[in-house]
Amino acid sequence: MGLTDDLSDQFFTDILDVCRRIQCDPLDLLGVMMNEIGVKANARNPTSNASGLIQFLPSTLAGLGYPDTPDDFRQLNADEQLPYVEAFFQPYVHFGLNSAARVYLAVFLPSALKQNPNNKTMIAQKGGLNAAIYDQNRGLDANFDGKITVGELQQAIERHYNSARWQEIAARLNDAQGSSPTGNSDGQDAIDLRTQSGIADALESLGFDRRHYGFTSAVRAFQMRSGLSADGIVGPRTRRSLTAALDEVGIPYIT
Fold it and tell me: What is the CATH number that goes with domain 185-254?
């Protein structure tokens, strides 16, 4: 048996459609689900009674129009929960769900999206801003400086990237993308640099194997090799360097 037999092929096909509508990278949304509870539809937080793929609180499910109990919701399979996932994220699309951290912010602290935060933005601090949230989530404080930043949300997600379940999830998503009717009609696999997963594919094609690098670490390594400031952020200069590097080795891409 595989490590993801609880997830149907239809789930991966449907999550591509959901992510097109909420304008985020499927790997980012799956990464948030992985960090929340391992992409498990039947999961329950015993303290808050949060349930399902993105750990919906009972009040959140009620607000989304779910008519039954959290226990009933956990009986739904992952594909059946996806409409509620999409409904949850729709109000935040206009803020831009263009990174795993921003997708996570919509779940973790949606009010912070209004600040148009970057990786260095502090969202909770011990004894200060959102102190109660810090106390409940101090494990996210990766450098133990008494602060949780947006970048540390990204790091929390990336820590799962080497797990066996995540590797199988990523492979199945790739299979679903390959069979999608929205793929390239000429059969050429062009890397889509408009998405984080596309950038990750580009980095891997250039020698930064995702099995050995988290996303941010791979970006930094590429930046160092390219003579750029190694901040781990894919800005305009990094994108230009990526496209030049792909041109040099003849790999097609979409920008």
Answer: 1.10.101
